[in-house]
Amino acid sequence: MESVPQSVSIKMQQPYGGNGAGSPATAFGPTVTTFVRPGPVPNPPDFVLWSFFNTLFCNVFCLGFLALVFSVKARDKKITQDPEGATSFGRTAKHLNIAAFCLGLVVIIIFIVVLATSFSSLQMHRGL
After folding, report:
1. Helices 48-57 and 63-79, interaxial angle, to 10°?
2. How far apart are CA 62 and CA 41, in angstroms?
3. Rounded-to-integer distance, Cα 83 and Cα 86, Å
4. What is the DSSP secondary structure assignment for residue 24, as one 8-state letter?
5. Gap between the Cα atoms of 100 and 46, Å rounded
6. Is the pTM of this model over 0.70?
7. How far is Cα 11 from Cα 33, in angstroms, rounded to an integer?
8. Which helix (H) or strand (E) is 56 found in, with range?
9. How far, CA to CA in Å, does 49 sit from each of 7, 52, 94, 120?
10. Who contacts 18 (Cβ-Cβ below 8 Å, separation ≥6)?
């Protein structure tokens, strides 16, 4: 649901009670003030949870920790109403998260393959 900015008009009463000569309000007319509410600030993603996961489980070359640092910076920029800075830090955090997750997955797969081959080779040597 989109909120449309609403205008608010305020009419000031004339001082001295009327439209007689010498009244300051008659020289300038009634005062009308218009206030338009600013639209909502965009909310760029900061990827803090993904960065925290990568810091705990896929922290190859400390990429998960670096992603967490950039995620926190993106959240700080978002709080200070700087959407461009938050978007920039968020994009960097996303790229670091992708790299950390892919490298972590490769390391886990290599570890499982090495463990399986060494276990099978150990079984073959005991059987001989």
Report:
1. 160
2. 33
3. 5
4. H
5. 16
6. no
7. 7
8. helix 48-57
9. 40, 5, 11, 38
10. none
